[in-house]
Amino acid sequence: MTASIDVQEHGPGRPIATTRLDTLQAGRAVAAFIVVLYHLNGSIFGKAKYFPDQIHPIFGAGHAGVEFFFVLSGFLMAWLYGHRLGRPEAVWPFLKKRFLRIYPVYWVVLTALIPMYFLIPGVGEGYETQPLSILTSYLLIPTPQDPILQVAWTLRFEIFFYLMFSALMAWPRLMLPVFGLWAAGAAAHLFFRPGFPLYFFFNPLILLFLFGAVAAGISRRGFPRPGLVAALGVLGFIGFMIGEVYFGFARNLCVMGYGLSATTAVAGLVRLEQAGRITVPRWLSYQGDMSYALYLVHFPVLSLGIKTVFAANLDRVFPQAVIAFFLVAACLLAAFALHELFERRLLLRSWRANVLTRRKFTG
């Protein structure tokens, strides 16, 4: 997910860019929330040892929030940094900003999580206490197994994409053909799945980054009827969620469907916002601000929360709907604390660094 980059380059309460793109912040908020519901629905409700009945089958497609995040990441790379292609001197500031955006907040959550695997026997799969697994998890190095913080598997793709994009910034003429071959390889893997590491480096999810970059180019040039385009994208996204859950759409078909629908929705929403035809409530935009924190903390909080519920026999006291509500509320509260106490300070530092970078590379 994730969704893990800024929609705009923030200042202390205000963005640097003239357009906040709050519609995309709202999209991040919704995407992160449906990922939370996806894990609540499949890892707690719908699981025999906790509650065998799901909250609702449609939440089984909540992983689509991850597909949205990938499209959004590609969009923002092209939107914020596309003008720096062919400027090798811009690569280091770009990578430094990406490092500050991804790693420190992730390290806070991972460091808080790891002791549990040493202190509580039987928790996890066994690899979580191995030094090599800990190291690769901290560095987000691809391995055949999930990182210790399982949702961080998406961050491995983010880091890989950032490295590829930085190479494109430095050597665009060389890398454009490479990107073409990369996309072709990812498309080929829609039809068969090789083993690791080939499947990581040519995963079909890579196409979603590229879809997002295309959406950025289209949005800059403009197009007619952006409202209709946005509506078709949103309806298409919902339609594929319904198709996956109720009609058994194939996984790769859904990946492409979510990706193309998100691309369409993002392009339309950005044009609508730029034209002043749509506004987003500040509270929803703020939820987008803390969506990365929510994405990182929600799975450990859900796991700890449900274990506490059963240890205290609260499942015999409260209805399942109340338990679900409080579990989600706990995720939001933990995300709020992480965002306010740590992430916002890092964003402010990144903003200050970005001001210096913009002054250096303007003109």
TrEMBL record:
UniProt keyword terms in alphabetical order = Acyltransferase, Membrane, Transferase, Transmembrane, Transmembrane helix
Ranges of residues in domain Acyltransferase: 24-338
- Please name the Pfam families in this protein's record: Acyl_transf_3
What InterPro entries has UniProt attached to this entry? Acyl_transf_3_dom, Acyltransferase_3
Where does the chain cross the membrane? 29-46, 58-81, 102-120, 174-192, 198-216, 228-249, 292-312, 318-342
Which Gene Ontology molecular-function terms are recorded? acyltransferase activity
Span of the signal peptide: none
UniProt-recorded name of the protein? Acyltransferase
Taxonomic source organism: Brevundimonas vitisensis
